[in-house]
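haha ok so turns out i had the wrong file open the whole time. this is the CORRECT one, sorry everyone. sequence first:
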Amino acid sequence: MRRLLKARKALQTASALFFFALSFASAGPVLEATPFPMHVYSLLDPASAAATMLAARAFIAAMAVSLLTLLSAAAFGRAFCGFICPLGALLDGWRAILAAIGRKPGNVLPPWAPRFKYLLLGALAILAIFEIQAYGWFAPASLLGRTAAFVVHPYADLMLRSIGAEPAVLARWGIMGQEHPVHAWGFVSLAAFLALLAAESARSRFWCRTVCPTGALLGLAGKFRLVRISFTDSCNSCGTCGRVCPTGAIDSGGKVRDSECTMCMTCLAMCPKSALVLSARGIGPAADDPSPLPERRALLVSVLMGLLTVPMFNLRGMGRERADRRRYARLLRPPGSLPEREFLQRCVRCGQCMRACPTNGLQPLLVEAGLESAFTPVLVPRAGYCEFGCSACGRACPTGAIRTISVPKEQGAGASAEEIERANGKYRFRIGTASVDRSRCIPWADGEPCSVCEEHCPTHDKAIKMIGVEGVPGAAAGIRAPRVDKSKCIGCGTCEYVCPLAGQAAIRVERLQRNSVSSRFGI
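then structure:
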């Protein structure tokens, strides 16, 4: 059994390393060249898949692979949590570090604590029924993905730059972006992850046992598992199994809670009498299973939790958007994003699109646009622009909230501007339009020459034109100033990014108030 335990730990470690390897490879040529889904861990989460499809009122074919995880739970219970889940692997690794310094977390929780994850699962399901996608906040892959994107990668990038690594070389492989990644709300993800480690220091697998809604769903399926851990007649009730079980799945009476057991094999390896074995049984719950599943009263509480939370996510329906149009005008979604309502229903807040963005332009929201938009991506042109030949965010999105658009790198010789525009999907999915603030623009306000925005405009038929300045006191003869041709602007934010003014740029991009799909080419 000790060999089996070592094999499980090896697989668990490999899974965690694979998760971070995919995360590091979610940008650059690797993402472009491989058909393998870099977001596979998000696709494997059955609870996330169910909540997303329910909220979106649509079948997402890529997420159907999560049925494999659900089927594994029907056979082996929460084995996914003990063998595959990268967050579980990190928590086990942290506990091993604590053990090495002589600190051992307890595994005894109050009776109500394990039931909370079922209440949370029910509340999130109610929100999904009301077309509100809140599951992404708690999905293990999304939580760890945000930590990787907002904390691990920026820190790794900073370290590599500090030792003299060449950004241009590493950017080709997705290890670095064109700009050093800095995310406005990264400290929130860091604080959440540190809270997880603190909780793990107090009680082993605290997150998995009390909060994780994915674990709750797998626990429900595990009630009817075909393979379980059971006791033989050689058991002398020494209690070793209960003390070493990291999930507290073995109670003081020597009974195994199937819905809590992650098949970690620790009890089998540590039992001095080898009194625990893996056994197969018929379909149906075990007669002596003391699992802490919710009762009817708890289910009612779960439903009420969801119903009472719904209004918090629907503040935009109470006039908030009309009262603060300026704030909403700056919500520039990535190119290819679904219309706002559908986008919010599908986005699982995993952070993959922001990690994949090579210019650091995609940033997470917190509560600027309401609770429902928390941790969803927006383009912040002052932080980074939307690269003209890039569609990494669409390829990185696991749910189709951001569609993959065609962005050919090159066009054949003699191609007309219109042919080039037709081939580049960014002309179809305009994310906004730029406008010049003449009170700040150097040529308009001061009569001094400046054409940086026009020079850097990436559209083939420039969306920014330089026109003569008239009526500016002290303006030199021949001074020309920028004017935006809104029919050609795609809202990439390059002009705002390169504007030489400190603070707020003199040219700013605001989102389109109509549907983001352009009718320029009859589409």
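The first strand starts at residue 227 and ends at 231.
again sry for the mixup
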